[in-house]
Amino acid sequence: MSPAMAVSDQSGGDDDTRGNQYQKGVKQLVESGLHTIPKKYILPASDRPVTNTEHPNVAKQNLELPIIDFSDLLGPSRPQALQSLANACERYGFFQLVNHGISDEIIKSMMDVSGRFFDLPFEERAKYMTTDMKAVVRYGTSFSQTKDTVFCWRDFLKLLCHPLPHFLPHWPSSPVDFRQVAATYAEETKNLFLRLMEAIIESLGITEANEAEGKDNIMKDLEDGSQMMVANFYPPCPEPDLTLGLPPHSDYGLLTLLLQDEVEGLQIQFQGKWFIVHPINNAFVVNVGDHLEIYSNGKYKSVLHRVVVNAVKSRTSVASLHSLPFNCTVRPSPKLINEANPKRYADTDFDTFLAYVSTTEPKRKDFLDSRKLTST
Q1: Are 210 and 216 in contact (CB under 8 A)?
Q2: 91-127, pLDDT tens digit by residue?
Q3: What is the chain's Cα-based Rg?
Q4: Torsion sign across C-alpha atoms 79, 84, 89, 91
Q5: What b/e readout covers 123-134, taking b as 16+ CB neighbours within 10 angstroms?
Q6: Are 284 and 67 in contact, with CB atoms under 8 Å apart?
Q7: How many CA atoms lie within 13 A of 121 on its CB side?
Q8: Closest by Cα among 305, 300, 293 to 369
Q9: CA distances to 237, 252, 323, 360 from 355, in Å
Q10: Measuring CA to CA, how many Å separate 218 from each of 22, 289, 290?
């Protein structure tokens, strides 16, 4: 896969002497020794992160996300754990998952190899630069190099994961252990996602009996479901109050399992305020995606989240995004539709999503809003 051609500056007047060097990513910018950020990365004042706790959109206290102990879902405490899971998905759209069964060694290895990939020379990383959103491997910066009017302070590596034997030969061959480590991690997170979705479906009141009656067979589809992994790198930023690592957005799939290092950066919006998500060692931050909001007919909500950066430390995270197969249609579960709770979302598919995001700069929950049939 050849590197993508540099794209012309869309800002119409960035006088930064580095020109289009930002197309190579923020890591390259930082290594060039900059002390101020290029205009291309400076957000309008209304979109910048605010740290002053007197501001109405900034929380004055910490938000403790629900902690779900996965082992409780496997034993006699399952009914209570399902209720806790339902409350987390309905009230917060986020939770921290502990005792999930994926070994500390696998987690540590995935974080380590991701960091070593971003430490490769730019020429090696650039082999995977492309503007093709359907590419098996995609290395880039910001959200989209071709249409973001303001860039965000992030470099990323995206990998399609399923079916793994088909995609694995296309993954980076450097570092030498990258494919082996990432493949093991992909398999482990896929299995965890499937078990977690079984519990979430049960928490919605959809049982195996419903599936046997043909009312809902989503688990059968999920066995062959889509999976994409995204390794993110956020270098130190000399002016962190002027930019974001990622702007406010929701995830398009069913569930995202996020692994983050010890550096704080992820924030979620709760009751109109921004709260930091404090890292828990070897835990997954799990969030409801747009597809689960659609499938649950609005009972479980995808939640806006963003990433702030800092001037001192780099931050690395690995997100594993899961949903139905790309050729499947996502629709509200028939089990959750009745006279009192009418169908609230139009059926959608991955091509519709790609067509939307390929022509529109992603903002907040715009795509999901475009699928709503009702105002509630």
Answers
A1: yes
A2: 999 999 999 999 999 999 999 999 999 999 999 999 9
A3: 20
A4: positive
A5: eebbbbbbeeee
A6: no
A7: 2
A8: 293
A9: 33, 13, 18, 9
A10: 42, 16, 16
Residue 257 three-state SS = strand
Residue 335: Cβ within 10 Å count: 17
CA distance 10 to 277: 33
Task: Tokens for 28, please give them.
Answer: 């390259």
- Return the closest-CA partner of residue 291 out of 193, 212, 359, 207: 193
pTM confidence score: 0.89
Q: What is the pLDDT of residues 361-374, one digit of tens each?
A: 556 777 888 888 87
Judge contact between 233 and 85, C-beta under 8 A. Answer: no
Residues 68/98, Cβ–Cβ less than 8 Å: yes
On the question of pLDDT at 13 being above 60, the answer is: no
pLDDT band at 56 (very low <50, low <70, confident <90, very high): low
Of residues 54 and 193, the one with the higher pLDDT is: 193
Residue 64 pLDDT > 60, yes or no?
A: yes
Q: Which residue has the tokens 């060692």?
A: 281
Structure tokens belonging to residue 257: 């399992």
Tokens of 76: 């006699």
Residue 305, SS3?
strand
C-alpha separations of 273 from 53, 58, 210, 225, 255 in Å:
10, 5, 39, 34, 23
